[in-house]
Automatic annotation (TrEMBL):
One GO BP: carbohydrate metabolic process
Domain spans labelled NodB homology: 63-282
GO terms of molecular function: hydrolase activity, acting on carbon-nitrogen (but not peptide) bonds
Family: Belongs to the polysaccharide deacetylase family.
Organism listed in the record: Phreatobacter stygius
Task performed by this protein: Is involved in generating a small heat-stable compound (Nod), an acylated oligomer of N-acetylglucosamine, that stimulates mitosis in various plant protoplasts.
UniProt-listed Pfam families: Polysacc_deac_1
Signal peptide region: none
Name of the protein: Chitooligosaccharide deacetylase
Length: 282
């Protein structure tokens, strides 16, 4: 699924998407619609995936890895942040403000105090909508209002928060909303797997799911070798961090394997905002 400009010079093993992963199979919006099963939705998502609004050459002088957490569960704060900090690095936490402090069958979502704490400890707080609706199911006005609510809620917790990055709920985009996001957010992360190298689509940044049910350690090692060989940017995404994670999360063992593998290869581990600085995205 990589663009030809980002094709790897040598074949690399890819993680196999778990069938229970958020990026595989249909997701449901608040109205219960099977959003990705509709032909129009698939086509719109394919256009967003294939057609860049902006294209930026990666100018980083060293390979980069970023760790990102979506939604984010309390364990991503309580466990994940500590694992990052033990290695002297920080991550990016994509925050759906309408879910803060909530409880669902999978996990307890971190509350407002966790957002404030993570920011104080040097982690990046990113946008993830207020409602957690798939963006292409919203009109232009609905999406702008939803993102404004997300931003306003975060700025009430962290006054002066600026230059935010965004992650697409469910990983699903639409070309019109992608164009809109290019003016509303500094950059946006997708769930399209792969290493970012050569030319970057800053409004649809590739990412690899760091999940025990879908990423083996050998595949992880090959991805780290690839980001070094291509002097690229590898973005990991996950949700909960627990010894027995959900099908959307990672164990501390897997997360440590990713951290230690990156450090062993002397790869820079940066929040997305700092990676974008290195790459040259304004």
């Amino acid at each position: 699924m990589s663009d030809s400009g980002n094709a790897s010079p040598t074949p690399m093993a890819r993680p196999v998407a778990c069938q229970c992963s958020p990026s595989a199979g249909p997701a449901a919006n608040s109205n219960g619609d099977a959003i990705i099963d509709r032909f129009g939705a698939r086509l719109d998502h394919a256009l967003a995936k294939r057609l860049p609004v902006r294209s930026v050459p990666l100018r980083n002088e060293r390979p980069i890895v970023s760790f990102t957490f979506d939604d984010f569960p309390a364990s991503a704060h309580e466990v994940g942040a500590g694992l990052l900090e033990a290695c002297g690095v920080r991550g990016t936490y994509f925050t759906c403000t309408g879910l803060l402090g909530g409880i669902n069958p999978l996990w307890t979502v971190a509350g407002p105090d966790a957002v404030i704490d993570l920011h104080a400890r040097g982690h990046e707080i990113g946008l993830h909508t207020h409602s957690h609706r798939a963006v292409f199911n919203m009109t232009r006005g609905e999406f702008e209002a939803d993102l404004a609510a997300n931003r306003a809620a975060l700025r009430r917790l962290i006054p002066g928060l600026t230059r935010e990055t965004f992650a697409y709920p469910y990983g699903f985009a639409g070309y019109a909303r992608k164009r809109q996001l290019s003016r509303l957010a500094r950059a946006s992360r997708s769930v399209l797997p792969g290493v970012n190298a050569g030319q970057l689509d800053p409004d649809f940044i590739k990412a690899v799911e760091l999940i025990d049910c879908g990423l083996t350690v050998p595949a992880l090692e090959q991805l780290l070798d690839e980001v070094v060989a291509r002097q690229g940017w590898l973005v990991f995404l996950t949700h909960d961090i627990a010894p027995e994670p959900t099908k959307f999360g990672a164990s501390p063992k897997l997360m440590n394997a990713a951290l230690e593998g990156a450090l062993r290869r002397q790869v820079d581990i940066l929040p997305m905002r700092e990676a974008l600085d290195r790459i040259g995205v304004a």
